């Protein structure tokens, strides 16, 4: 596409095969971005690639990998450098929520899985892609968080800890880059109709929550060259219950 608010911007989106990540990928494509889409499920990524080709006439770059394979993140960054020489937008969207339970009942393997995906993988993404983001004329990093980070929601355990750590990490990174061309922000989408939400609210009417497509405008705003926000937590709404 030759038009669009993200025309020519190179953007990497994790967790792109479904939910918010998929919706953001479709919106970014329609806004003219050159996309690198990361998820574990290659089949779902290929289906999304077909959809984007149908909408825009352009293919995307697919990166099927498990973000817990931290070395693979380094290799992905090297491949992005070889092809694009820069990264304009990093969207850290991939997340994991295990069944809710009291903190002492969280199994060590559950703790490790959630911390690795929600926090450590995002650190590794920043570590690996920071040199490419700095090459951009307007590097943007956007990470997805949650309402539960205040520690006042019982049974959210590792998920709440991981998202609180993520927010601190991103705000620290943003503070370190106040005098650079990089803007790093956090987006809390509020209650959204994703495959993760029924884990927390198995009896909830899906129609009572917004669609992933309803939050994509916020991602576009944070990804634009004109975005001046840095180190902010943007909360789309303030639900009565924690979001996923």
How is this structure best summarized?
The chain contains seven helices and seven strands, in the order βαβαβαβαβαβααβ.
Task: Quickly count the helices.
Answer: 7
Order of the strands making up the biggest sheet: 3-2-1-4-5-6-7
- Please report the distance between the alpha carbons of the first and last residues: 33 Å
SS elements, strand count: 7
Q: Give helix and strand order, one letter per element, not per position.
A: EHEHEHEHEHEHHE
CATH homologous superfamily label? NAD(P)-binding Rossmann-like Domain
CATH topology description: Rossmann fold
Main beta sheet: 7 strands, parallel
Q: Could you say which overall geometry the principal axes of the C-alpha atoms support?
A: globular
> What is the highest CATH level, the class?
Alpha Beta
Reported CATH architecture: 3-Layer(aba) Sandwich
As a whole number of angstroms, the C-alpha radius of gyration is 17 Å
SSE layout and pairing:
Elements: E1 10-14, H1 19-30, E2 34-39, H2 42-56, E3 61-64, H3 70-84, E4 89-92, H4 108-135, E5 140-144, H5 157-176, E6 183-188, H6 197-200, H7 216-223, E7 233-235
Parallel strand pairs: 1-2, 1-4, 2-3, 4-5, 5-6, 6-7
Describe this structure in words.
By secondary structure, this protein is α/β, with parallel strands linked by helices. It has a single domain (10-110, 121-235), classed as Rossmann fold (3-Layer(aba) Sandwich), CATH 3.40.50. It has seven helices and seven strands; from the N terminus they run βαβαβαβαβαβααβ. Strands 3-2-1-4-5-6-7 form a seven-stranded parallel beta sheet, with helices on both faces.
């Amino acid at each position: 596409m030759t038009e669009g608010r993200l025309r020519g911007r190179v953007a990497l989106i994790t967790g792109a095969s479904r939910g918010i990540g998929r919706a953001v990928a479709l919106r970014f494509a329609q806004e003219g971005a050159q996309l690198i889409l990361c998820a574990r499920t290659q089949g779902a990524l290929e289906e999304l690639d077909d959809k984007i080709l149908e909408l825009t006439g352009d293919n995307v770059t697919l990166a099927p990998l498990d973000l817990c394979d931290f070395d693979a993140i380094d290799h992905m960054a090297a491949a992005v450098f070889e092809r694009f020489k820069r990264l304009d937008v990093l969207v850290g969207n991939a997340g994991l929520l295990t069944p809710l339970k009291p903190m002492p009942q969280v199994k060590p393997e559950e703790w490790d899985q959630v911390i690795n995906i929600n926090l450590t993988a995002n650190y590794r993404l920043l570590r690996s892609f920071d040199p490419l983001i700095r090459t951009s004329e307007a590097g943007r990093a956007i990470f997805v968080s949650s309402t539960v980070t205040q520690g006042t929601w019982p049974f959210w355990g590792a998920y709440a800890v991981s998202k609180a750590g993520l927010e601190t990490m991103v705000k620290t990174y943003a503070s370190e880059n106040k005098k650079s061309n990089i803007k790093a922000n956090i987006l809390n989408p509020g209650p959204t109709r994703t495959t993760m939400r029924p884990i927390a609210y198995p009896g909830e009417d899906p129609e009572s929550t917004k669609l992933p497509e309803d939050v994509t405008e916020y991602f576009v705003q944070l990804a634009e060259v004109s975005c001046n926000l840095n180190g902010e937590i943007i909360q789309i709404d303030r639900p009565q219950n924690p979001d996923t």
